[in-house]
Design goal:
Layout: E1 3-7, H1 16-25, E2 30-36, H2 46-59, E3 64-69, H3 73-80, E4 87-91, H4 98-110, E5 114-119, E6 137-141, H5 156-169, E7 175-179, H6 187-193, E8 197-200, H7 202-205, H8 210-218
Parallel strand pairs: 1-2, 1-8, 2-3, 3-4, 4-5, 5-6, 6-7, 7-8
Helix pairs in contact: 1-2, 5-6
Amino acid sequence: MVEISTSILSVKKDNIIKTIYNLETAKTDYFHIDVMDGDFVENNTTEVMLEYCDYLDSITNIPLDVHLMVSNVRRYIDMFLPYNPNIITIHFEAFKDKNELLDALDYIKSNHCRAGISIKPNTNISEIFDILKYVSVVLVMTVEPGKGGQKLITSTLNKIEELHRYIETNKLDTVIEADGGINLENVSDVKEAGCDIVVSGTGIINSDNYNEVIKNMKL
């Protein structure tokens, strides 16, 4: 059974409180916070994600899974730390210097968060193998980061399989998370590839029954 991290990126502001309540009732495991800066990716969701985190902080105990698609990583870590996220994930591609990347991961862990590393669809999975011992989570993007509602890129499933084999072979405790275009029609493929946490946004939010969708995704 996998865990479900529901992205609230596509939720309209006038529905956010009701949606949070309904997702909690439906037993989502995490609220996935898609933070974009308008630089690392085209869209900018910083303001709305901070606003949504304010709501989440006041009305739910479901843990936050913060995905930073940003260039100025340290600044954004500090921006979202006050919400006590369970996971903060940063992008491998946001760094030109490996030591700066490791420093950022250490900083996340020093603030009592699980540190995650994410890679885009075109990044070779082997590029992060030497980093896995420093992280709790690897987030494999199954679409190009920057907007919701995209179709899953099926070739990214091979990356999840390769990553899963490497983790098993080297007896690592690293968890695999997948994000992008995942819905009831393709979630079984993602799980079979070796994913532990499934991120789904519109696949859940646009459904008529959060309970049924989340339950069936977990099975």
